[in-house]
Design goal:
Blueprint: H1 11-64, E1 72-73, E2 79-80, E3 82-85, E4 88-94, E5 104-113, E6 119-129, E7 132-133, E8 140-146, E9 148-155, E10 164-166, E11 178-186, E12 204-213, H2 223-227
Antiparallel strand pairs: 1-2, 3-4, 4-5, 5-6, 6-7, 6-8, 9-10, 9-11, 11-12
Length: 235
């Protein structure tokens, strides 16, 4: 009886199988790469949003506790209790946490150049003394990598006047009623989701937007009497 020898695979069949296996492995590799990229993008977006929420809570709490305490006199000899510019502001408030045991501090919140083509948000402070503000402490970094931003102020020049929004606050003896902080971050982070889903100029996103009320009534303290203890106009 004839016995037929087992037939092996031809070279063409082996090459075809290897080519098919390579295609399958390539598909698996790209699938894993895509999944990893999606996870990393999601993690980055969550981290940035958590950072924005934490910063919002900190700044809102800080501004809501602003006090109408004068730390210097203006050119007319009136006490200054709040000073605001488009990218900086000075106000008196207790520091958060255990630091508030030191009492109200003159705080300086500012957007400054980080030397790398972007901005950073810093908070500096100085203790109040009988003659005004004491020696300032080194500013603390709150957030970096900021693409742009601004501060705005809502209030009235005097009692009975109409309130309005302005880019600067230079009303002696009065605090604004509302303060708005807007920060933008570059969209270089691709899938990052901004705190507000607004796209701004130059490919930046409105990463943080908050509006904080100043709780203290401007007439709760006798600013004029307190200002008399100050030495005179200071820069």
């Amino acid at each position: 009886m004839l016995r037929v020898a087992p037939r092996g695979f031809s070279l063409l069949e082996v090459l075809s199988a290897l080519a098919l296996l390579s295609l399958l492995l390539l598909g698996v590799f790209y699938g894993i790469q895509t999944a990893t990229r999606s996870v990393n993008t999601g993690s980055t977006a969550l981290e940035r949003n958590d950072q924005a929420r934490s910063l919002q809570q900190f700044l809102r709490r800080d501004l809501m506790q602003a006090r109408a305490l004068p730390w210097k006199l203006d050119a007319k000899g009136d006490g200054v209790v709040f000073e605001g510019e488009p990218r900086s502001m000075h106000f008196v408030a207790p520091l958060p946490g255990y630091l508030d045991r030191a009492g109200p501090q003159l705080q300086a919140l500012a957007l400054v150049d980080d030397g790398k083509g972007a901005l950073k948000l810093e908070l500096g402070s100085a203790p109040l003394t009988s003659g005004g503000a004491g020696v300032a402490f080194e500013p603390e970094l709150l957030v970096d990598g900021v693409h742009g931003g601004r501060f705005r102020y809502y209030g009235r020049d005097r009692e009975g006047a109409e309130a309005s929004w302005r880019d600067r606050w230079d009303v002696a003896g009065r605090t604004p009623e509302l303060v708005t902080i807007e920060l933008e971050r570059s969209k270089a982070g691709a899938g990052d989701k901004a705190t507000r889903d607004d796209t701004t100029r130059d490919g930046a996103t409105a990463w943080l937007w908050l509006q904080a009320p100043i709780r203290q009534n401007p007439y709760a303290l006798n600013v004029g009497a307190l200002a008399k203890s100050l030495d005179g106009p200071k820069p």
